[in-house]
TrEMBL record:
Species classification: Bacteria, Thermotogati, Thermotogota, Thermotogae, Petrotogales
Gene3D superfamilies registered for this protein in UniProt: 3.30.470.10, D-amino Acid Aminotransferase, subunit A, domain 2 (3.20.10.10)
Family in the record: Belongs to the class-IV pyridoxal-phosphate-dependent aminotransferase family.
Top-level taxonomic group: Bacteria
Species this chain originates from: Marinitoga aeolica
Protein name: Aminotransferase class IV family protein
Length: 273
């Protein structure tokens, strides 16, 4: 299902034209539903607003966006939960142009049960990027390039100019060592992920040991557990970093977070307004 401002049209898959749109002067968000409700829309909206402001784009009002997306979800009338790819380009008072692509989510329980395989990108994040990493845009071409280059793996860990761990190309990263959960700070050059933020809320609510600080590669490779976070799947345990660094997947801390994730988000009104 694809929304192009004027109307909703049925579409089964991405086509080249659609892909091109997502690579233009634009900002985008990937959202999902749980039990048919859009998860943390307000958080995604706030990030969209920051990205749009940096790029000099206008955005629709929150309620307007919410209504349009809900209308699309209803029209798709899908049994599963859905993933929404939202792309905003020149949205002005005369040309209200934004796009949304809605598709069913196929939940892959295997990911949560047996974990995924990562690689470490040979390329580092560009230093002094023209567009800061908090802006979610395909104009940060390095990220799209690395995603394609390392697509044999679930994701590729990207290091910054100092050799610190930053994030994947589509996910944030956490390590667990001796029971302490650690994730890189925003200043390492990451996208402040919505899932990352909500996992931190969950960690805090459990009073778990937690640090937000720079992570060296040796700490990553010798961690007890590693997990990724991103909207479409939530919390994803890592079982291996190639060639042969292996981790408990899911380890006890990651498993605890996964087990409480749905209850935590569903019972917290802040994520559903
Ligand atoms: N980091 C990058 C570079 C991303 O592209 C994404 C999501 O697309 C994330 C992290 C995870 O962010 P979120 O949890 O908001 O989906």
């Amino acid at each position: 299902m694809f929304y192009n401002t004027e109307n909703w049209i049925e579409k089964n898959k991405y086509e080249n034209d659609d892909f091109d749109l997502f690579n233009g002067y634009s900002t985008y968000e990937t959202l999902r539903t749980y039990n048919k409700n859009i998860f943390a829309l307000r958080f995604h909206y706030e990030r969209l607003k920051k990205s749009a402001m940096f790029l000099g784009l206008d955005i629709p009002k929150y309620e307007e966006l919410k209504n349009i997306l809900n209308e699309g979800i209803e029209k798709l009338n899908c049994q599963n939960d859905v993933r929404i790819k939202l792309m905003l380009n020149k949205y002005t008072s005369s040309k209200k142009s934004f796009y949304a692509f809605i598709e069913p989510i196929i939940e892959i329980d295997d990911l949560r049960e047996s974990g995924v395989v990562l690689t470490i990108s040979r390329e580092r994040k560009p230093k002094n990027p023209v567009i800061p990493y908090y802006v979610k845009t395909s104009l940060n071409g390095y990220s799209m390039y690395l995603r394609q280059k390392y697509n044999a793996y679930y994701d590729a860990v990207v290091l910054n100019e100092f050799g610190y761990v930053t994030e994947g190309t589509k996910s944030n990263i956490f390590i667990v060592t001796a029971g302490v959960i650690t994730t890189p700070p925003v200043s390492a050059g990451i996208l402040p992920g919505v899932t990352r933020k909500i996992v931190l809320d969950l960690v805090e609510s459990f009073n778990m040991d937690f640090e937000e600080r720079n992570i060296e590669v040796w700490e990553l490779l010798s961690a007890d557990e590693i997990f990724l976070t991103h909207t479409s799947v939530g919390i994803v345990p890592v079982r291996r970093i190639v060639p042969n660094f292996t981790f408990n997947a899911p380890g006890i801390t990651t498993e605890t977070l996964i087990n409480y994730w749905q209850d935590f988000i569903i019972n917290n009104n802040a994520y559903w307004d």
